[in-house]
Design goal:
By secondary structure, the chain is an alpha+beta fold. It has two domains: 198 residues, Deoxyribonuclease I, Chain A; 110 residues, no CATH class. The chain has eight helices and 15 strands. Strand 5, helix 2 and strand 6 form a beta-alpha-beta unit. Helix 2 packs parallel to helix 3 and helix 7 runs antiparallel to helix 8. The protein is globular, with a radius of gyration of 24 Å. The relative contact order is 0.09.
C-alpha cells in the first residue's frame, strides 16, 4: 500500500491526488487510476477482472461521470469474457456519462496494425468491433499519431489504446477529442482526452538537480579539483579550492544538467520523427540503428531525471521528519 501511494504521487506530481488500483492478474500488469482531488470528487471505486471503475463528479460543474480503466488480456477467449462483462455493465449504466479508456490489446482494422512475423488476428478484431457497436460507444478519431504502441524495431506498431465514450458523455461534452503524445520509456504512447478547454492530465514534475548521477561528473570534479595548486595550512586549501571550483560547476551545470526536460524532448522528437516515417514505409538500416541509439539515450536521461526526483523526495522526508 505504501509503495502504491508513493508511485501514485510520483506519477501525479506535487498537487493533491486520489487513486484507486487493481493488482496484476497473472502475467498481466496492474491498473492505476489517479485523479486531482481539487478538480473531481470520486464517490466509489470498484473493479472486476481487467477493469477498474470510478464514479464521481466534476466539482466546478457538478456533472457526474463513470470512468472505466481497462487493461485487456491478450488471449481472445478471455477478452471475449471481458467484453461481455463490460456490455452488461454498460446496460446497467446506460444513462451515465461513461468513458472507457486505455489498453484493449485489440485493433479495429488491419490499417491499425503493422507487424512482421505475427499474423493479423481478424477474429479478435471482429469481437472487439461487435462489443463497441453493441455498446453504442463512440470511437473518437485520434490526433497526433496513427498508432499508440511501438515495439521499437521501426516496423511493428499498432493502435491498442483509445477512449470510447457513451452517447450521454458525448451529449454533455460534445467537443471531446483525444490526442496521442510523445512516448517515453514505455512502448505505448500516452493519450489525452480533452473536454473543450479542460485537460485532466497530470501536472509536470519539477526535478531537483542531482549532479553525481550524471555520467562524467566525477571525472570533471576530480580533474578540476586537482588542477588548482594552492599552498596553506589546515582547512585553508580545501576551502579556497571550493571557492575556485564554484564557477566551473556553474558552467558544467548549464551544459549538462540544466533543462533536462529539453534534452528529453529533443530525443523524443527525433524518435517521433522515425516512428512517423515507420508508419508509412520501412526504415533504413541506419535509421533503425539510430532509433536504438535514441532509445538508449532516452533510458539514460530518464534514469538521471528519476534520480533527481528521488533526491528531492529524500530531502523532503528529511526536512519533514
Amino acid at each position: 500500500m505504501l509503495l502504491m501511494i508513493f508511485f501514485a504521487t510520483a506519477v501525479w506530481g506535487n498537487s493533491k491526488c486520489g487513486y484507486s488500483f487493481q493488482a496484476s492478474l497473472g502475467a498481466s500488469g496492474g491498473i492505476l487510476t489517479v485523479w486531482d482531488t481539487d478538480v473531481v470528487e470520486v464517490w466509489t471505486t470498484s473493479h472486476f477482472d481487467h477493469a477498474l471503475v470510478i464514479r464521481g463528479r466534476v466539482i466546478c460543474t457538478c456533472l457526474e461521470f463513470v470512468i472505466v480503466n481497462v487493461y485487456a488480456p491478450c488471449d481472445t477467449a478471455t477478452k471475449q469474457l471481458l467484453w461481455d462483462q463490460l456490455s452488461s455493465f454498460f446496460l446497467a449504466n446506460s444513462h451515465a456519462n461513461l468513458c472507457l479508456c486505455e489498453d484493449y490489446n485489440s485493433v479495429r482494422s488491419e490499417e491499425e496494425w503493422k507487424g512482421r512475423g505475427a499474423a493479423f488476428r481478424q477474429h479478435d478484431t471482429d469481437i472487439f468491433n461487435s462489443f463497441i457497436i453493441d455498446s453504442l460507444l463512440k470511437d473518437l478519431q485520434i490526433c497526433g499519431r496513427l498508432f499508440t504502441s511501438y515495439r521499437g524495431d521501426g516496423y511493428s506498431m499498432s493502435r491498442l489504446n483509445r477512449f470510447l465514450l457513451s452517447p450521454t458523455w458525448c451529449s454533455v461534452w460534445p467537443n471531446s477529442n483525444q490526442v496521442a503524445i510523445q512516448h517515453g520509456l514505455s512502448d505505448h504512447v500516452p493519450i489525452v482526452l480533452f473536454l473543450d478547454e479542460e485537460n485532466w492530465g497530470p501536472r509536470p514534475l519539477r526535478m531537483l538537480k542531482c549532479w553525481a548521477d550524471i555520467p562524467g561528473y566525477a571525472d570533471f570534479f576530480y580533474n578540476r579539483w586537482g588542477s588548482f595548486v594552492l599552498n596553506g595550512w589546515g582547512s585553508y586549501v580545501p576551502k579556497e579550492k571550493l571557492k575556485l571550483i564554484k564557477g566551473s560547476l556553474k558552467e558544467w551545470h548549464r551544459s549538462h544538467s540544466q533543462n533536462m526536460e529539453g534534452k528529453l524532448r529533443v530525443v523524443k522528437d527525433m524518435m517521433a520523427s522515425l516512428d512517423s516515417k515507420g508508419e508509412s514505409s520501412d526504415l533504413l538500416q541506419e535509421e533503425m540503428e539510430e532509433l536504438h541509439e535514441l532509445s538508449f539515450s532516452l533510458h539514460s536521461l530518464s534514469r538521471v531525471q528519476s534520480s533527481m526526483c528521488w533526491q528531492k523526495a529524500r530531502i523532503w522526508l528529511f526536512v519533514g521528519s
